[in-house]
């Protein structure tokens, strides 16, 4: 049988190691590019090690960069970078750029230190990310060191390095150094101009932004939407509506595309400058409405006291962040709507938004304005429970809150427990004593403050002078005023002169008060004439009172208090014709006397009463109680003082008018509802009248109740038939 020979096939040649190595390298590099998780990266890292490619700097750097992109934690990326043996400078620079953009920019400087220790050089491309990290950290010392390095190696002539240096100094608050470098630059691009302009904005030097923008327009650099947004922000924060409008016109004339970001900046500028018509017009054209623009509209309307308009925009917002909630709460707190502020704060909590310190300060302010002690206690508990208890501004606000809620003891307790105090802390406590009529402790604390080398500011002196004025301490007040000028070199403001006029006026030194008004270097304002006018009313000095009222009306023709007091002066002299003329003028101008209103807090609810109010659900029982109290007080000598009823009525009608004052109704409701022995706390929006003051004193004795009334200017603590003001208010 014939044998058929088989062809001999050649053995396959062994694979080329270089080709395989290259294939693995390419495969792993692609895998790193498409990795979607940190776990995936670690698996690829294991393959790199198994493939013997762990000395490939390009692969390891790609692993580092991918790790930075997939995780906010840089621990893994840093550990891998440390395995790279003598990385080339261009590879190090890539890592430095990634680190400078990360949430932990301090690692940029740490890696830079390692590179320096390892003897690895840096080039001009290394410096911008290092300076960017220093900027984000406000690390001035490190930034200046890098500046020195740039100068040493001649990198400081590079425009990118120069721009980064300008940004670093501006971010560290060294704006003059930033401007010096900026002015020396031979090439300035749009980024450099924007950094310098933004630097002025961040330093609060808004008025310097506008001339710089004029310089930019004179150069060959065309501003972009980022520059315009920055400039408009500066105009808004400086309140420069004229220049803001000019920028808007420039944008229109140059046919610059107004994108949503720039549109929002225009809305913000107009709203911040109080031009709400223009802001609303631009806001209406903005679609969709973003949170930033909506929030600035809320703030703009709130600052003008138009809280209903602010709330309308707030309610239309689909998504609300903390800043927006805080803006609306602040709007209510500052616009005499404290209950709405607290209500909205509770709604914010229900929605799951956690407050920050800014929110809490608005909430505390609202509670202080409301004067509700139970609410104040709850807010204080919330502050401690949620980690705000150590914040100095919050503690300062708590002192003021407790003082305005009638609890001087709790205000003092907050003050005494503070391990760190500043001048505001001391001033808040001094003012608390002053408004509660405790001049002795106010002055004692003022002396202690000086002993502890805390320098008082002008607000501190307002508090001390206020204490002297409300206690009739004329000579002490003179000494304090003199020391403020001679010892502390503080130039007196209207507030200080107002306190001195009030001090002399309350002490019936009216001619001395007038002499001070005539000699003071500042033009007397509404408060100064108002203080003199009020003192004249109290002491029956009608001629001087009429003079002061007329001076006041020259400054503010629509001042309701001046018209009312002028009418009251005429009424006391029974000049009913002149009373009629004043009231006719008030009606013609739409000026109305502020209605007396009193609040009392019971069982976590605020009950509000107006004069002769019948709206309360227990009105019948309240008036029955009032009749009972009046009869009890008459047994100890009470007779309604109708001299404060300054309208032409029959005597019986005057009796009813004075007995139906809002604070009496609130007091009777408190007597009905509060347990015997508890303190009754009332907030009155106007100065308490002579009859109500006597009424409160007698009730405190006959019913053995402590009563605290906060009126427009001070607190009255009634106990055992006496008042803390010693009938001097």
Automatic annotation (TrEMBL):
<dbReference type="GO" id="GO:0008270">
    <property type="term" value="F:zinc ion binding"/>
</dbReference>
<keyword id="KW-0677">Repeat</keyword>
<feature type="repeat" description="PPR">
    <location>
        <begin position="189"/>
        <end position="223"/>
    </location>
</feature>
<comment type="similarity">
    <text>Belongs to the PPR family. PCMP-H subfamily.</text>
</comment>
<feature type="repeat" description="PPR">
    <location>
        <begin position="422"/>
        <end position="456"/>
    </location>
</feature>
<feature type="domain" description="DYW">
    <location>
        <begin position="637"/>
        <end position="729"/>
    </location>
</feature>
<dbReference type="GO" id="GO:0009451">
    <property type="term" value="P:RNA modification"/>
</dbReference>
<dbReference type="InterPro" id="IPR046960">
    <property type="entry name" value="PPR_At4g14850-like_plant"/>
</dbReference>
<dbReference type="InterPro" id="IPR002885">
    <property type="entry name" value="PPR_rpt"/>
</dbReference>
<dbReference type="InterPro" id="IPR032867">
    <property type="entry name" value="DYW_dom"/>
</dbReference>
<dbReference type="Pfam" id="PF13041">
    <property type="entry name" value="PPR_2"/>
</dbReference>
<dbReference type="InterPro" id="IPR011990">
    <property type="entry name" value="TPR-like_helical_dom_sf"/>
</dbReference>
<dbReference type="GO" id="GO:0003723">
    <property type="term" value="F:RNA binding"/>
</dbReference>
<dbReference type="Pfam" id="PF01535">
    <property type="entry name" value="PPR"/>
</dbReference>
<feature type="repeat" description="PPR">
    <location>
        <begin position="290"/>
        <end position="320"/>
    </location>
</feature>
<feature type="region of interest" description="Disordered">
    <location>
        <begin position="1"/>
        <end position="22"/>
    </location>
</feature>
<dbReference type="InterPro" id="IPR046848">
    <property type="entry name" value="E_motif"/>
</dbReference>
<dbReference type="Pfam" id="PF20431">
    <property type="entry name" value="E_motif"/>
</dbReference>
<feature type="repeat" description="PPR">
    <location>
        <begin position="321"/>
        <end position="355"/>
    </location>
</feature>
<dbReference type="Pfam" id="PF14432">
    <property type="entry name" value="DYW_deaminase"/>
</dbReference>
<protein>
    <recommendedName>
        <fullName>DYW domain-containing protein</fullName>
    </recommendedName>
</protein>
């Amino acid at each position: 049988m014939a044998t058929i020979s088989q062809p001999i096939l050649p053995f396959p040649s062994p694979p080329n190691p270089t080709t395989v190595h290259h294939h693995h390298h390419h495969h792993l590099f692609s895998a790193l590019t498409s990795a979607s998780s940190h776990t995936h990266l670690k698996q690829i890292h294991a393959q790199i090690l198994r493939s013997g490619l762990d000395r490939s700097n390009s692969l390891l750097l790609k692993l580092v960069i991918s790790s930075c992109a997939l995780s906010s934690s840089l621990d893994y990326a840093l550990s891998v970078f440390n395995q790279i043996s003598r990385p080339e400078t261009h590879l190090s620079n890539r890592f430095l750029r990634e680190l400078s953009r990360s949430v932990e920019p301090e690692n940029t400087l740490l890696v830079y230190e390692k590179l320096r220790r390892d003897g690895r050089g840096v080039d001009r491309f290394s410096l911008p990310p290092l300076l960017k990290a220093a900027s984000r950290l406000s690390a001035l010392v490190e930034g200046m060191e890098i500046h020195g390095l740039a100068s040493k190696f001649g990198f400081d002539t590079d425009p990118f390095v120069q721009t980064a240096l300008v940004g670093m100094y501006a971010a560290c608050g060294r704006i003059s150094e930033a401007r010096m470098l900026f002015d020396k630059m031979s090439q300035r691009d749009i980024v450099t101009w924007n950094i310098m302009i933004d630097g002025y904005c961040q330093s609060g030097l808004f008025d310097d932004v506008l001339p710089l923008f004029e310089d930019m327009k004179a150069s060959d650099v065309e501003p972009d939407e980022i520059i315009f947004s920055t400039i408009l922000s500066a105009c808004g924060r400086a309140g420069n509506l004229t220049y803001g409008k000019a920028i808007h016109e420039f944008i229109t004339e140059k046919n610059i595309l107004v994108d949503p970001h720039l549109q929002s900046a225009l809305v913000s500028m107009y709203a911040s400058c109080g031009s709400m018509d223009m802001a609303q017009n631009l806001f209406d054209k903005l679609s969709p409405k973003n949170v930033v623009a909506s929030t600035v509209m809320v703030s703009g309307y709130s600052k003008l006291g138009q809280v209903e308009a602010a709330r309308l925009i707030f309610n239309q917002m689909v998504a609300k962040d903390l800043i927006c909630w805080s803006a609306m709460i602040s709007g209510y707190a500052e616009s005499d709507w404290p209950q709405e502020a607290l209500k909205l704060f509770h709604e914010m909590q229900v929605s799951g938004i956690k407050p920050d310190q800014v929110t809490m300060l608005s909430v505390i302010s609202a509670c202080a304005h409301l004067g509700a002690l139970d609410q104040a206690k709850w807010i204080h508990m919330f502050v401690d429970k949620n980690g705000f208890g150590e914040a100095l501004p919050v503690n300062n606000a708590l002192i003021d809150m407790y003082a305005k809620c009638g609890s001087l003891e709790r205000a003092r307790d907050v003050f005494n427990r503070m391990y760190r105090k500043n001048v505001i802390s001391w001033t808040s406590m001094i003012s608390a004593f002053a408004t509660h009529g405790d001049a002795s402790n106010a002055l004692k604390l003022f002396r202690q403050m000086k002993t502890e080398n805390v320098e008082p500011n002008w607000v501190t002196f307002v508090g001390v002078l206020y204490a002297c004025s409300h206690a009739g301490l004329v000579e002490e007040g003179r000494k304090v005023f003199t020391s403020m000028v001679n010892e502390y070199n503080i130039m007196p403001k209207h507030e200080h002169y107002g306190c001195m006029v009030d001090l002399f006026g309350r002490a019936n030194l009216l001619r001395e008060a007038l002499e001070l008004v005539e000699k003071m270097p500042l033009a007397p304002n509404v408060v100064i004439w108002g203080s003199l006018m009020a003192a004249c009313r109290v002491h029956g000095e009608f001629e001087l009172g009429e003079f002061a009222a007329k001076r006041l009306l020259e400054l503010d023709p629509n001042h309701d208090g001046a018209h009312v007091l002028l009418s009251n002066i005429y009424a006391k002299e029974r000049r009913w014709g002149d009373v009629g003329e004043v009231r006719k003028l008030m009606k013609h101008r739409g000026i109305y006397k502020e209605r007396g209103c009193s609040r009392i807090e019971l069982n976590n609810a605020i009950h509000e009463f107006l004069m002769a109010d019948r709206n309360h659900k227990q009105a019948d029982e309240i008036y029955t109680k009032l009749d009972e109290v009046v009869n009890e007080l008459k047994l100890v000598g009470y007779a309604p003082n109708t001299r404060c009823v300054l309208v032409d009525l029959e005597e019986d009608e005057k009796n009813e008018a004075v007995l139906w004052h809002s604070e009496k109704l609130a007091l009777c409701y408190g007597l009905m509802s509060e347990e015997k022995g508890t303190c009754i706390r009332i907030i009155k929006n106007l100065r308490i009248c002579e009859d109500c003051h006597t009424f409160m004193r007698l009730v405190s004795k006959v019913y053995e109740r402590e009563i605290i009334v906060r009126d427009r200017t001070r607190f009255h603590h009634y106990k055992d038939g006496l008042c803390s003001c010693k009938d001097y208010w």
